[in-house]
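Sample entry (240 residues):
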Amino acid sequence: MQNQSIKKNRYIGMIFIMIPVLIQIPYTMLIVNFQYPDILRLPSETILTEFQKGGSSLVWTWWFFGISGLPLLFGYLHLYQITKKNNPLLSLAAVMFGIVSLFFQLIGLLRWVFVVPILANLYSDPLSSDIMKEAVLVSFQTTHHLFGVLIGEHLGQLFTIFWMGMVSFMIWKDQVFPKWIAVFGMFSSLVYILAQWELFAIVIPELKEIPLAGLLGSLCWLLWMVSLGIQIIKKSLAKN
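Predicted structure, serialized as tokens:
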């Protein structure tokens, strides 16, 4: 029974280590082939035109990007099992935020797979009238801001930040792992939340985004996840 628990901890640790690495594959491909993430703030006609140029390979890249984070579900549930004894309500809230964040981000990313291709085809079709193209642009803007900015970027990232902050607090409080993991997680949460200013700046022009907050926040999150995975494996080895 103990050996099974040790193996499980190692598998979960590997998930936290490998998934951040796996995510970087489609992310890098989108940077190279689609000017991501800068293209997200360009005019709708530019986005649709560039998307159409990418073809089916770009659609598959977005699909891979969307589903690559799903194995984290097992990691979130494992941390819930570790922390629920001393913090039943907080750990339950944390795992709920974590799981919901995965699905919010999945919805946001998969719009590029099942919605945007249709709009891009209509916009690029030489038989489409000017009225049709204007309707497509309005539809894309609505989809882009509803499923992308609101659900994927705002709620998805915000719930991830809440999860990371709660888990870090429980680690610090109960010393489940070294305290520096907790401190790093809290720091990463604060940096990552500053990136939300960019989203508010879209609708409130007088607000200014904080430069590099999004990049630094996401990098800190990735490094924290890898560090957490290493600590989970080290703890399982110590029990062996």
